[in-house]
């Protein structure tokens, strides 16, 4: 399957008429009809209903059309960005991150790097597992996550350990307290991210299990914002890293925990054994200052 086949399909899907579609594609109708038949054969589904009144998308065709438009849009965007990068002579620098680390000082690092005239910064929301794969493939150059993963091609640096807090619905019985995990275990838990695993969800469950506490998972969510919305809806409570408290949301209160040592690491991942480029050296220098600010209490 080639990109031109997808473009042919989209044109026919928009026109629902082979003659008009062929004219817009500057080709004859019979070859276009054959291409569509071959595409249906390769996909393994009929994409069009054919009748004397013309063409009509089947349910499978509607689904394929929606996703094909997304694919072609992504391809066109990528080509345009690549052309801009080639013309500008800028260096591409990729950063992967999990959402829960983006509420602290990471935006300051991004802002500093974006001001560099010679850098084309690319951000990607990725789990720590996905970050490791992206580092090895060259898609990103730095990753910020919370899971320690052993991989011979990736080195990880624990920047600092961040206290965990409980996110509770407003008016919750524990809202004005400093609860223990044992107290929190008595309430339904909202777990995130649901997929992919392992993730912060497994770290959260492990904290309860290591203390012999059983929890009831009321709901799983893939996104932090969804988890907080579920908490605000009184579906349950959840544990979040401290910097998430900067997310001001109606119906949510954040409280520190009484148990000592309940933290979540912020981990920076890089390719192992790679000599740092000038851009990486700048990023490391900025990061060093930001981490020192955090450790010294100058920034929460």
Automatic annotation (TrEMBL):
Pfam families: HTH_1, LysR_substrate. Keywords: DNA-binding, Transcription, Transcription regulation. Gene3D superfamilies: Periplasmic binding protein-like II, Winged helix-like DNA-binding domain superfamily/Winged helix DNA-binding domain. The keyword Transcription applies. It comes from the Bacteria. PROSITE patterns: HTH_LYSR. This is LysR family transcriptional regulator.
